[in-house]
Known about the structure:
CATH superfamily of the domain at 30-38 and 52-142: Alanine racemase
Oligomer: single chain
Distance between the termini: 52 Å
Structural class: alpha/beta
Radius of gyration: 17 Å
CATH topology of the domain at 30-38 and 52-142: TIM Barrel
CATH class of the domain at 30-38 and 52-142: Alpha Beta
Number of strands: 7
Largest sheet: 5 strands, parallel
Number of helices: 5
Order of helices and strands: HEHEHEHEHEEE
Strand order of the largest sheet: 1-2-3-4-5
Helix content: 40-55%
Amino acid sequence: MTTQSRRDDITSSLQSIQNTIKSASSTPTRLVAVSKLISNDDIKVAYEAGQRHFGENYIQELTAKAAELPDDIKWHFIGALQSNKCKHLVEKVRNLWCVQTVNSEKKARLLEAGAESAGRKEPLKVFIQINTSGEDRRHLLGCN
């Protein structure tokens, strides 16, 4: 259970960040609150304060939170995605809004297959990593 002091801290911090974003940019900007290792109670406080986009980088944590929290949260997967988890991610997180980032065509196709089998009505947003530097150690799509 979130204490009143913690609720106040979350709400005021979120409002401060949103005000900073508004004053710094004349174009629409989206705040994604990374909720890694944050309790569902704390996420609910941010949700009640108007935050709708949340990011997670562990699939198990994301699927558990998505099952328990409001359906209008727009979840972002922001971690390293393994091929064998792509379909599971899209099928289990009905309100998955975006995957940041995909580094192979295989993963993009597996996400698409998962979206089709889950009967998604809206297309999944996907950020693609591209290796423009030519570094071999990077696991990114090549750019020739």
